[in-house]
Amino acid sequence: MQDSIKGGLIPDPEILLRIARTQITFGRYAGVYIIDLPENYLCWFLRQGFPPDHFGHMLKMVYEIKLNGLEYLFNPLREH
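The structure assignment produced for this chain is given below.
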């Protein structure tokens, strides 16, 4: 996320596109787009700690997106 406008945040389109097109590469959900990860898996990361890298930052953003019911916004960004 970048600058604020009227008290809100302006989303960085590049990060949103990356979230829409990034697949998890490990574990039970390998091959699943991170925007499609189940909320309980993201809650597990919340309790355990998100990885301290760019991927962890994206997972945290996906958690916030799902928490606020905004995952439908990613439908037009998905690769077909």
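Interim note for the steering committee: The longest helix spans residues 54-67. Residues 4-77 form one domain.
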